[in-house]
Amino acid sequence: MVDIALKTTGDGRFAYEAAGSPHSPPLVFLHGIGGAARAWRAQLQHFGDRFFALAWDMPGYGGSAPLTATSIETFAAALKDFLAAAGATKPALVGHSIGGMIVQQLLASDPQIASAVVLAQTSPAFGKPDGDWQKQFIDARLGPLDRGATMAELAPSLVRELVGDAPDPQGMDLARDCMAAVPEATYRATMLALMGFDLRSALAKISVPTLVLSGSKDNNAPAPMMAKMATYIPAAAYAELQGVGHLAGLERPGEFNTTIDQFLTTALKRT
Known about the structure:
Blueprint: E1 5-8, E2 15-19, E3 26-30, H1 41-47, E4 52-56, H2 72-86, E5 92-96, H3 98-109, E6 116-120, H4 132-146, H5 151-162, H6 169-181, H7 184-193, E7 210-215, H8 223-231, E8 237-241, H9 248-251, H10 253-270
Helix pairs in contact: 2-3, 4-7, 5-6
């Protein structure tokens, strides 16, 4: 059994969980809007015997300080600061949902910062801020809060809408717990940070080994969109987990871990 340690960077800005030796290759996991560092514990357990495995609490989540201005760009800048503070030099990055958008943004500004990346159930664009679909998406998620609901009250239904077939019960308990604990102000600000995000033109410039990973029953980052996304990234690998919704690492941790394992085994030999 690999031990997982709860840590804070020396400057106090970032909280994170870590497993494995700092002398091993770094592998960093980045959660989604309703997540937290602890959502990655099954991954830290799995990879901590071979990697310095880290799971970041994004700014405003868990013990990490919030940003003064919230955008994908400021999240990416914070991620770069976190990697330096945690001693994760040239890491493999696994970004889920908005975490994958943040990884794309970081690569756009620093193309060689990572040894490999996994873009899990994410998108290269959210679209125009004034688009009808975008407005409906935001209203569906923030409207209940506007009407007085709490994150704890919304967590069960939000998680239920995200998952696919036969998800792992323990993973679902953890997903609901993470979602319920997100501060409302953080959830609102992070949702609004999606507006206007568009890095489709940057996909062709991704130059590190990349895995694009989807779930066949993911309605937030549909598999056909992700398969198309992979065709724009030079030499990207694509994998689709059958019956899986938007929370693959929690729904089917074994399949998720094995798929990433297989990719990293090949990718890191090339770097």
